[in-house]
Write a structure and sequence with these properties.
alpha/beta; Uracil-DNA Glycosylase, subunit E; 6 strands
Amino acid sequence: MLKACKTLDELWEYVERLHSEHFPRYSLAPIFGGGRITQPKLMCVFINPTAKNISSRMEWRGPRFPFIGTRQVWRVFHRAGFFDSELLNEIEASKYWSLELTNRVLNHLAQRGLYLTNLVKHTGHDATLPNSRHIKLFLPILIREIEIVKPEYIVSFGLLPFTTLTGERIKLNEYYSEIMATKRLRFYTLKHARIYSKVIPCYFPVGRGKPNRAIAILKLIAALGI
């Protein structure tokens, strides 16, 4: 049972059982969360993983967390001041992510007080948004994950995770204009979890999102000492 999961390892075992039950012939593995696993400053919640994440391959034997084997998100975090230049240079130069590089990125996230995860733990073949069935299936897992990790702040990348977590509907462009003008963040509260974490909406940083605006919000978060 989900409520019996007291640790992330137990939660990931639950995810794998759920995945096997609902997607028995699916060719891509689920992606978990990673970074500082106990009271991180920021939990970054993205939408869903895609096949571009090399840890979605069934033969992968390392940790599984968002954006392994990709570059753009790490560039965004670096420009915002949340990611080391030397490590980014190694990512840029690497044709293939080794397990050693993957573990160094994971450790770096932990040192920076960051934890990365997705609203939906089911890996898509492309960037298609998850449907309502997938969200309903995996949302309780994210809520339990939040309760286990206990982040101080949650940055929701995209309106889909923001609305799902808070029950609020906002116009992100208006929110962005407000906080850029005032240099003050406006926080929202979680609708589901039994802990109090402040939620900060943000643009999705890759693909259909707006990386430059995501960077500006992350820079404001950093400037305010969060």
